[in-house]
Design brief:
The complex is a heterotrimer.
Chain A lengths: L4 H5 L14 H6 L25 H6 L4 H7 L3 H10 L12 H6 L10 E6 L9 H7 L1 H15 L3 E6 L4 H16 L15 E6 L9 H8 L23 E5 H13 L1 H7 L7 E8 L5 E6 L2 E2 H8 L9 E5 L8 E2 L6 E2 L1 H6 L8 E6 L4 H15 L5 H21 L2 H14 L7 H15 L1 H5 L23
Parallel strand pairs in A: 1-2, 1-4, 2-3, 5-11
Antiparallel strand pairs in A: 5-6, 7-10, 8-9, 8-11
Chain B lengths: L7 E5 L2 E5 L5 H7 L23 E4 L6 E2 L10 E3 L3 H17 L14 H9 L15 E5 L2 E4 L8 H9 L5 E4 L6 E4 L12 H5 L5 E3 L12 E6 L8 E9 L2 E8 L13 H5 L14 E4 L2 E4 L2 H18 L4 E4 L6 H14 L5 E2 L6 H7 L10 H6 L2 E5 L3 H4 L1 H14 L2 E6 L11 E4 L5 H9 L15 H13 L3 E5 L7 H10 L5 E4 L6 H6 L6 E2 L3 E2 L5 H6 L10 H10 L4 E5 L3 H4 L11 E6 L11 E4 L8 E4 L4 E5 L4 E2 L5 H11 L4 H4 L6 E2 L15 H8 L5 E3 L3 H11 L7 H5 L4 E2 L35 H12 L10
Parallel strand pairs in B: 1-5, 16-17, 16-25, 18-19, 18-21, 19-20, 21-22, 25-26, 26-27
Antiparallel strand pairs in B: 1-2, 3-4, 3-5, 6-7, 7-10, 8-9, 11-12, 12-13, 13-30, 14-15, 14-27, 23-24, 28-29, 29-33, 31-32
Helix pairs in contact in B: 2-3, 7-20, 8-20, 8-23, 9-15, 13-15
Chain C lengths: L1 H20 L27 E4 L14 H5 L5 E7 L11 E9 L8 H5 L5 E6 L11 E2 L1 H4 L11 H9 L11
Antiparallel strand pairs in C: 1-4, 2-3, 3-5
Classes of the chains: A alpha/beta, B alpha/beta, C alpha+beta.
């Protein structure tokens, strides 16, 4: 039985993202329009909307200058520069990028690799697509600089399979880069060889996890690997591999050109620079905004996002993509950086800010989230495979009015027993938001009991995802 | 300067544990008796970390860690039994039991299911699951493999044993998430070697045996670990036995007793082909030829007739009786037959179906000790040279040992064969030679460069051969395994080559379960037990008495002698020379032929007296496998009114008026098996049976005890003086091949008739096995490609 | 006077006797009582000879799981299981009991088998007249233990077809 590829292209994200249409055709014909706000600090998005997919335009806009500079630096210097800039992984984990690069051993009997994680599948996240769409060369440049830093000669840019039209753009960019001598043998006349290959995914969220990404790239099923050893020591085909998110790599050239101090100063200590925040949900002005790290979430919702339309009130915010625990309306006065959100009991994650107003049924939202994780679970380990399925079934029955009081406790029990017990963080990503929903919105769950219809919908009809045999 | 690596100390549940570096935590815990549960972890296979049952708390690590993927480190502190760990285990089981169907009453694994056991141990029996369970279709993948897909817990053990272990790769995983399934290589059925390892290794009842399906429950059977009676590898197979009308019926065979040399391994024959034992065609009464037809008779009648006729023929001319021994009777029976022929029948005309040139092997190793490799050595050797034979088909355990040695220890395999055998996939070096050129290989390796002329080809250059020889000469502790293609004078040549390599040991491959035992016990016209030449029998004269010293005639010569009327009597024990060696059945029309066998074979059909015998699964005794490992057989089944060969031989001697006390020491006798007792699960025992056994009052079936003659064997046959205690405890003991007489014992190479069986053919026992035949028929209906699934 | 006292004492004693003579009897008048049970009365939970039940479709409930045999303290249950096929379906699950014997020479009527059964197949009936002169008669086979097949085998035609072909009514007949 093969997975019906079409089903995976259908709307995966929460139904509240307004910018994205749910068919390929529509995506192809209408590229997302760009938004802006005065508070933005354009580092990664500097070249958006200026035709930088063309290599000539890219070069006009300071393209490939960072590589030139990096070629003249010592590898350790590059690593330190990135370390001191405070750049942390933009894919969700938030690990200091320079520190990660420093784990790669100096000597290695096997070749070293740089792998760009372009498998953006976290619901609520739509930033890497803009980078691929508007500034693909920045990613290529970032990959090359990372290679110089760790001593690698080969890079892979893995783009999510559903982003077919964006892959075409990237492949063209690669072709142009090769043609102009920025890739291949003796790049920029430096004597250093560097090859970069594009690779398309096959439709799974799980391969966003770095070891599953490597497995997928190697042509195997996208199941994560046993860790340790970690990719920096044993990665692709056994060789040391650096894996970074596309936005992280696109941030590297500006750091090399602008300097670590400048970048670090933009955000709070240890959380340097800017990031692309994807604002979606019940907002007047949803879109992707590049704001400094540490920007206040409340301000982000009401000023940058334009507040909640239709005179409705804020109910909850998911700050960093659906894997992060939600924050209630009382908790949104928080600085959007990795450490502050961790203290607040959530995570910065991938920067997908989903805003829910008081017309949203939390139970339905929880169900929709769980459907995603149940569908995307790779099936390797028991708690995630069985836990997400059980939770989805319980939440479905619950939302349809068949819930019992003990179900609420059971949902919490299952989620708590998945947390920290799974083979990879997908289980945690399914468990944490569920725990938060039940804890913070218990009353809403209780309002669905005793066969009462969902207070937020006249009909309790649930959109059904087709079930795979 | 390099010492043994320093052992690492850690603390588990307050207990101090020391283990070598690189040990997995789950294994280290086992050494102090702490069992960490797991489904997906299985020793010697790749690590999974999939089931999460082995989560334990390790100090300084934030989350619980899987013990099966954690390597021990100095001063690690581990807790395997606190509240958090217990809750984690309970939760994993609860989640697993969510979609797992409530099939226990109808599932064959009930009573021996790891999921059941863990649920009872870790308290997840009460379910909170109120939803609809996912259903998947049940399938039958082969006549002997059923797959109940809903029960599968996706531990991936079957995938690994089929791939990494057997190198067949017939199972894989399809789909993802909760709809993941294990799938066979041919959409809805399997094309594989049908070893059935997937069934034994499956912790639940997802993969079950078609041969055992629905027959009974594990606690209703008595489990007897005995030695398989099919090929010469000597695997331990566990037979499940229960009382039936005809005696004790063997209901299933598997590998739950993993204490044998084979460990986890068992092939299709050891596992399924036990049911020849209750084939309805089995003889249950003696038959005597009257007026040209074989008619049922009593044992007394039969023995009287045999005694009378054999005595007559012997008294007229002792050299006119021939004896054909068996390759699947026990060592004790073979020794007894050898003694009987010489002492009672006063003839040296004794032979058997030879499948390897063991005498030449013994002679080549004369005076050397410790030069034969045991089956365990094959797994541990740093390098192996394999000449001829196709172990995957003919010696499956040997192939398993070689494959896993290469996989787990990076051993070097040098394979030389006239066919591209499947083991070439593990070979560091594979040389293909023309058929029949094995002798040239031996010559070349021993130093004769001109022999390379016959060996060079497009794929194997002269230089390649020279490099190979140089490489081999540098190997330490090389194990040299050769098939029956190396025989006669080629054998000492090869041995000469091997003896020059320090630490090298040999394995001479013979086919049937006790071919080696038959050879060791002297079923040869010119050799006594232990390869003593009949001409200078020395101590045998003292022990046995007066025995003839002129060599007798070999098997083919017996047929000729019968034709000319020189041979007037033939005693065939468990052999079928008419079908297997092409004997002319009419050659014996004028002789008095006695055959003892299980079935009315082609040879039995020409007999004057046919005696029904018990097979190896129905008696005690010992077998020697082709490597020389001696192992104990335990009586499992029983079919009424058959007798073991041992008893028949003694009774014939008695009927001939010979004082049997001079033939065989009586020992304590054999008592009846009291049948199954209830297993530990029910806590009940068949109290009457237990009482009888405790007081030594079980019915006595025979005054003869094969173990008593084992003492004599151990005294007289060199190399067999192994530890009897170890042997009787069920361990394999390696015998030393020690031939006293040096010099070539050149036998005619044409006397060797290898069986050339493969996994799915067997003319001797397999053809009576319904299970084996159903698999063979199925393969004919869906013909497999010539390459194995792995290719 | 003593005579009168004695007569009075006897009369007092006899009055109880006469009173009781006309009360209804508690003693069961088995085997001379009315009805098919000949006067014997049982509590619902009396443990008599076993009955193998059928489900609402008329299929046997017993799936030959061997749990009753395992629970039996007397080792008196013997079972052989077999597979249900599309052509010949006996129970609702994958397997059924091809052979099911209870040796009433050994059975102690403890009821452990009934407690153990996961499908409520084996139950106690009220049969108690099973004495025999011949021990072999006391090994009851499945046919003797099975409850009667219903007149129609339910509305499910899959299970019905063989019987309908043999003349049974295809649909439930009112009153049956």
């Amino acid at each position: 039985m093969i997975i019906d590829f079409r089903l995976l292209i259908e709307d995966h994200g929460t139904s509240t993202i307004k910018n994205q249409k749910s068919t390929i055709k529509n995506r192809q014909s209408k590229m997302a329009s760009l938004v802006s706000h005065p508070d933005e600090v354009r580092v990664v998005s500097k070249r958006f909307g200026q035709g930088a997919t063309s290599i000539d335009r890219y070069l006009e806009l300071d393209g490939y200058k960072a590589v030139q500079k990096a070629l003249g630096m010592q590898p350790d210097a590059i690593v330190n520069e990135v370390k001191n800039s405070g750049l942390r992984g933009r894919g969700g984990a938030g690990f200091n990028t320079g520190l990660k690069w420093s784990f790669v051993p100096k000597q290695s009997p096997k070749p070293k690799y740089v792998l760009c994680n372009g498998d953006e599948s976290e619901p609520g996240t739509c930033k890497d697509r803009l980078i691929f769409e508007h500034d693909p060369h920045a990613v290529i440049e970032g990959v090359v600089i990372a290679g110089l830093a760790v001593g690698s000669h080969t890079g892979y840019i893995y783009i999510r399979g559903e982003y077919r039209y964006l892959s075409e753009i990237m492949q063209k960019a690669l072709k142009d880069a090769y043609a102009r001598g920025f890739l291949g043998k003796n790049i920029l006349g430096s004597g250093y060889d560097f090859d970069v290959y594009w690779h398309g995914g096959a439709g799974a969220y799980e391969v966003g996890e770095e070891s599953a990404l490597m497995e997928s790239l190697e042509g195997k099923r996208g199941i994560p690997r046993v860790r340790p050893p970690f990719p920096a020591v044993v990665g692709l085909w056994g060789g040391p591999t650096v894996i970074n998110n596309a936005e992280t790599l696109a941030s590297v050239p500006p750091i090399i050109l602008g300097g670590a101090e400048w970048y670090a100063a933009i955000g709070p200590p240890k959380n340097g620079g800017t990031r692309l925040f994807c604002l979606s949900g019940n907002l007047a002005r949803p879109g992707v905004y590049e704001l400094p790290m540490g920007y206040n979430l409340k301000k982000m919702i009401y000023e940058v996002g334009g507040g909640i339309p239709n005179s409705r009130k804020l109910k909850a915010v998911v700050p960093g993509g659906s894997s992060t625990p939600c924050l209630t309306a009382d908790e949104v006065d928080v600085s959007m950086d990795f450490d502050s959100l961790m203290k607040a009991g959530s995570m910065l994650g991938s920067g997908g800010v989903v805003v829910l107003d008081d017309s949203t049924c939390i139970v339905k939202f929880a169900l929709r989230t769980m459907k995603f994780y149940q569908h995307e679970s790779c099936g390797w380990c028991i708690p995630c495979r069985e836990g997400t399925d059980w939770l989805k079934k319980t939440l479905t029955r619950f939302h349809a009015g068949g819930g019992l009081k003990k179900d609420i406790d059971n949902i919490q029990y299952l989620a708590e027993n998945m947390l920290g017990r799974t083979f990879c963080p997908l289980g945690d990503a399914a468990a944490m938001p569920t725990i938060a929903f039940v804890k913070k919105f218990r009353k809403e769950f209780e309002d669905h009991l005793e066969g009462k219809p969902c207070p937020f919908e006249k009909e309790a009809a649930i959109e059904q995802l087709p079930v795979m045999a | 300067m390099a010492d043994a690596p320093k052992e690492i100390s850690l603390t588990v549940d307050g207990k101090k544990v020391t283990s070598p570096p690189g040990t997995l935590l789950i294994e280290a815990c086992k050494t102090v008796g702490i069992e960490v549960p797991s489904f997906c972890y299985y020793p010697n296979f790749s690590l999974q970390g999939a089931c999460r049952m082995c989560l334990v708390k390790i100090e300084k690590m934030p989350k619980l860690q899987t013990a099966c993927t954690t390597v021990i480190s100095e001063a690690m502190t581990v807790t395997t039994n606190n509240e958090e760990v217990r809750q984690a285990r309970k939760a994993m089981l609860e989640m697993l039991l969510g979609n797992h169907p409530l099939d226990c009453p109808v599932c064959d694994a009930g009573g021996e299911c790891e999921l059941q056991d863990m649920t009872f141990s870790y308290g997840a029996a009460e379910s909170k699951f109120m939803e609809a369970k996912n259903h998947k279709d049940e399938q039958q993948w082969s006549p002997v493999v059923y797959f109940d897909r809903p029960r599968c817990i996706l531990c991936y053990r079957c995938v690994r044993v089929c791939g990494e272990g057997m190198d067949v790769w017939a199972l894989g995983v399809q789909n993802r998430g909760v709809v993941s399934v294990i799938a066979p290589n041919k959409e809805d059925h399997l094309e594989c070697e049908e070893c059935g390892m997937c069934i034994d290794i499956c912790p639940v009842g997802a993969l079950t045996s078609g041969a055992y399906r629905y027959k009974t429950r594990p606690w209703e059977m008595k489990h007897v670990g005995t030695i398989c009676t099919h090929c010469g590898d000597g695997c331990k197979t566990t037979l499940g036995v229960r009382r039936a009308e005809s005696g004790l019926q063997i209901v299933r065979g598997d590998n739950r007793d993993k204490s044998g040399i084979n460990g986890d391994f068992l092939c299709i024959k050891g596992r399924y082909a036990f049911d020849f034992a209750d084939n309805p065609e089995r003889l249950k009464q003696p038959l005597v030829r009257k007026d040209g037809r074989l008619l049922p008779a009593t044992w007394e009648e039969a023995f009287e007739l045999i005694g009378k006729r054999f005595s007559e023929i012997r008294d007229k001319d002792g050299q006119s009786i021939g004896v054909v021994g068996s390759t699947r009777t026990t060592n004790e029976e073979n020794y007894l037959l050898s003694k009987f022929a010489r002492l009672v029948l006063k003839t040296n005309n004794i032979d058997h179906h030879r499948t390897a040139d063991f005498p030449a092997f013994a002679a080549a190793l004369a005076g050397k000790t410790d030069r034969t490799a045991s089956m365990r050595d094959v797994f541990n050797a740093p390098a192996i040279l394999l000449i001829g034979n196709n172990p995957t088909d003919q010696h499956p355990l040997l192939a398993w040992q070689i494959r896993n040695n290469v996989r787990l220890h990076r051993a070097r395999l040098y394979a030389i064969n006239c066919q591209p055998i499947k083991l070439r996939r593990q070979a560091t070096n594979f040389m293909e030679i023309p058929s029949g050129a094995e002798g040239k290989v031996a010559a070349f390796l021993a130093g004769d460069d001109t022999a390379a002329d016959a060996l060079t080809s497009a794929t194997a250059s002269r230089d390649g051969w020279r490099q190979l020889r140089e490489k081999l000469r540098t190997e330490q502790n090389l194990v040299i395994i050769f098939g029956s293609e190396i025989r006669g004078n080629d054998l000492p040549t090869l041995v000469k080559f091997g003896l020059a390599i320090p630490g090298a040991k040999f394995v001479c491959l013979g086919d049937y379960a006790n071919s080696r035992g038959a050879a060791d016990m002297g079923l040869y016209p010119d050799l006594l037990p232990g390869y003593h030449r009949v001409a200078d029998a020395g101590k045998f004269h003292e022990e046995w008495g007066k025995i003839p010293s002129a060599p007798g005639i070999a098997l083919p010569a017996m047929a000729d002698a019968a034709k000319t009327g020189k041979l007037k009597g033939l005693y065939v024990v468990g052999a079928n020379p008419v079908a297997r060696l092409g004997f002319d059945p009419f050659a014996f029309s004028k002789s008095f032929v006695v055959v003892q066998d299980m079935f009315l074979t082609e040879t039995a059909s020409i007999a004057d007296v046919v005696l029904p015998v018990a097979n190896a699964y129905e008696k005690s005794g010992t077998f020697t496998n082709t490597c020389g490992d001696l192992q104990l057989l335990k009586k499992a089944g029983e079919v009424s009114d058959t007798k073991p060969d041992f008893e028949i031989i003694v009774r014939i001697a008695d009927a001939m008026g010979f004082d049997v006390r001079k033939l065989v020491p009586f020992g304590t006798g054999t008592r009846a098996d009291m049948g199954q007792s209830r297993g530990a699960q029910s806590g009940e025992a068949d109290r009457h049976a237990v009482w009888l056994e405790a007081h030594g009052l079980e019915p006595k079936m025979s005054p003869f005890d094969p173990m008593a003659i084992l003492d004599e064997i151990q005294r007289l046959v060199p190399g067999y003086d192994v530890s009897q205690i170890n042997l009787l405890s069920g361990n394999d003991q390696h015998t030393n091949l020690m031939s006293q007489s040096a010099g070539s014992a050149a036998h005619d190479g044409s006397l060797i008739a290898p069986a050339n069986d493969d996994l799915f053919t067997s003319g001797t026992l397999g053809r009576y096995s319904r299970a084996l035949n159903s698999v063979i028929e199925n393969r004919h209906l869906q013909p497999a490609e010539t390459e194995v699934a792995a290719d | 006077m003593a005579v009168l006292k004695n007569i009075a004492a006897i009369a007092k004693g006899m009055s109880i006797t006469f009173k009781e003579m006309f009360q209804p009897t508690i003693v069961e008048n088995y085997p001379d009582g009315p009805g098919p049970l000949r006067g014997a009365k049982f509590q619902e939970r009396y443990r008599g000879a076993h009955v193998l039940q059928r489900d609402e479709n008329g299929l046997e409930k017993c799936v030959a799981c061997f749990l009753c045999a395992a629970a039996c303290p007397s080792n008196c249950i013997y079972i052989e299981a077999a597979e249900n096929t599309a052509e010949h379906r006996v129970s609702a699950a994958e397997r059924y009991a091809k052979v099911y014997n209870i040796d009433y020479n050994r059975c102690i009527f403890c009821g452990y088998c009934v407690e153990a059964c996961p499908t409520d197949a084996i139950t106690h009936g009220h049969g108690f007249e099973i004495a025999s002169f011949n021990a072999s008669n006391l090994i009851y086979r499945k046919e003797q233990l099975l409850s009667a097949a219903p007149a129609h085998l339910g509305a499910n035609e899959v299970f019905n077809s063989a019987d309908v072909a043999g003349g049974a009514p295809a649909l439930p007949v009112p009153g049956s």
